[in-house]
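SUBJECT: A protein chain and its fold
Encoding: whole-number codes for local backbone shapes
RECORD BEGINS BELOW THIS LINE
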Amino acid sequence: MVGNEYLKKIYSGKTVLVTGHTGFKGSWLSLWLDQLGAEVVGYSDKVPTAPSHHEILELDLKSIAGDVRNLELLTKTVEDIKPDVVFHLAAQPLVRYSYKNPIETYDTNVMGSLKLYEACRKVDSIRAIVSITTDKVYYNKEWNYGYRENDTLGGYDPYSSSKSCMEIMTASIRNSYFNLNEYGKSHETLISTVRAGNVIGGGDWACDRLIPDLVRSVIKNETVSIRSPKAVRPWQHVLEPLYGYLLVGARLVSGEKEFASAFNFGPISRADITVQDICQRFSNVWSGFKFEIDEDHAKNSHETKFLQLDSSKALAQLAWKPVWDDDPFSKTFLWYREYYENGKTISNNQLSDYIKAISA
């Protein structure tokens, strides 16, 4: 059985540590875990944007201010709260920022993750670690079909490369300290990585992301510059991969060690949609929106033109499937319109609608 009732049986009463809980994905995940009855503890160095979905939600959870690179504080946090489950989302998540700040990017995404694992090794309570990476961990060959979990890892830019390094490092940590052959003997911790990207939804205000850039341009009555109009990405609503992450965590908590591996989560039924297509859709629902193509950037910069994921493994092994695959854009646009035009935050309503869809 899958669906929200299954998740509630697993997570209710569990202590769950979420690193990066103040970010876009982390705030939505914290909201869902809170509704599942989990005792959520967040660990993050700062609130990354203003406005902030995390602050708007005003969830009643314990929040610890700390950098994921701070081994001493991480260790104290993990030892104090003794989590059952860890969802690791804390990261430097932006591609363009990584070009300007490569040392910070690698230090946060690779060494920060390693320090979290080191902290987790010292606590016996942890049954599951789910580490979030990205669809960009694959060595991109501009294939017109989706990448599978066993395809070659790579990464052109520092961000993508750092996440690929994190995947390799995580596999090494699993083999070295959380070895599946030793599960139930020398340890009881299972670790997985989950890969998704180009996630959209209400409450994202990060820089250099398409939907937030479109929204900001309308609010400021500016023309937004589009860098890669023909680029195709695995666009999906934020709740789709989060459902997958929760399913993976539930399987690990249940001691099913065959799920201690990598999983892709991406759209499966939608036709290719380009950046320019999304801009056209946005202009249809929000009057006053104006955009232009940055021809110089499109000609002179490296950017992957085609990227898709093969989610067959998640469909077959987890019984996961996207339920808002047909149109994640209208739900995303609606969230921002309600927020800016009516002063409403509809995150709880949208989560409720999504839960009904996966439970149908």
